[in-house]
Amino acid sequence: MQQPLIMTPGPTYIHEEVRNALSQSITNPDLDPKFYTFYKETCETIQELFNTKNEVLILSGEAILGLEAACASLIEPGDKVLCIDNGIFGNGFGDFAKMYGAEVVYFQSDYRSAVDVEKLEEFLKDQHDFKIATLVHCETPSGITNPINLICPMLKKYNIITVVDSVSAIGGEPLETDKWQIDILLGGTQKCLSAPPGLTLLSISQYAWDKILNRKIPIAGFYCNLSQWKNWYEEKWFPYTQPISDIYGLKAALDRLLREESYLERHKKIAEAVRKSLVYAGLALYPLDGFSNTVTTINIPKGVTYQQIFDTMLKEHKVMIAGAFGFLKNKVIRIGHMGENCYEEKLYITLKALDKVLRKFDIHLKGELHKLFVSFL
Ligand SMILES: *Cc1c(COP(=O)(O)O)cnc(C)c1O
């Protein structure tokens, strides 16, 4: 049977080069010195992707592990954490901080817009006594990219540790970890990197390491304890057996992406054409600004439900798109244009299917979505 085209905002399509790497024969990653070199080289490739000289680690666990590991390793009970919140992931970061005993203060910004930088600047003038701030680069459920390039330097003026969830932006949006002063940047593999889910990538600044290694109260837990990783290369010691096949796959995916010099332009160009075609046809996007280059979130028009769109897309056109969760459940549909899925032909097929499905439910569209898309490229 023909496989459906998976156009959700992650997991994304995995290229043959990556699948072949995943099936390579393995060695003993704890004992083979070559694996330590390979792991280090993979970290160096990630440094290139992140634009950072900070130390990079690959953790065995989907990206949520990165969020939790950052909180577990940095937060001591009673620490004040600023949670910058303009969406579901931003808000949820505060819950992780609370789990580790933080006293969380939320800076809330309109959920349909990128974080309001001027209001945040005003807020920080009054209140800046925070050890850590958490923020999200791309709010995947709403399809909004936040100006972390402006926000992080603002936080660093007050010596606040910046922890950024860039899971759905890495590889699809510009990223300057060192220039933007991001202390901990974290990402996953199943979004724009187009490798299978299962790993967290993160970079840690010297400032963040100093805080992690000089706590008064020891870190509770083992898997989330980043200090276990200090000196892994010098001592040729991993805290646990590495998921070697997944790391082979990740390296192949990174090499594939970085070989292409214009991957950021590709994401921008495709995303813009997707949005323009939807808006021209008369559909409404959920975000009012801060449009993401990796995912587009569309308000469901009156007269059709999420379930009808999802089911008909999949059954009649073999294309899978996503809805959302939390307060956006049944209100929006989302098309991912991430990594291997961010190509003209895949969006053409997706928009053609969406066009047919919406017409089937008598939704009026001005022009045909897929033809508009091509005209806007
Ligand atoms: C995908 C994603 C994660 C990882 O979450 P899952 O629900 O496990 O996929 C974390 N943060 C953001 C912003 C994401 O888009």
Automatic annotation (TrEMBL):
Pfam family, one: Aminotran_5
Residues where substrate binds: R334
Record keyword Transferase present: yes
Transferase as UniProt keyword: yes
Cofactor requirements of the protein: pyridoxal 5'-phosphate
Superkingdom: Bacteria
Keywords annotated in UniProt: Aminotransferase, Pyridoxal phosphate, Transferase
Transmembrane segments: none
Alphabetical GO biological process terms: glycine biosynthetic process, by transamination of glyoxylate
GO molecular function: alanine-glyoxylate transaminase activity; L-serine-pyruvate transaminase activity
InterPro entries linked: Aminotrans_V_dom, Aminotrans_V_PyrdxlP_BS, PyrdxlP-dep_Trfase, PyrdxlP-dep_Trfase_major, PyrdxlP-dep_Trfase_small, SP_NH2Trfase/AEP_transaminase
Domain (Aminotransferase class V) ranges: 30-321
List of residues that carry N6-(pyridoxal phosphate)lysine: K191
Annotated family: Belongs to the class-V pyridoxal-phosphate-dependent aminotransferase family.
Protein name (database record): Alanine--glyoxylate aminotransferase family protein
Native source species: Crassaminicella thermophila
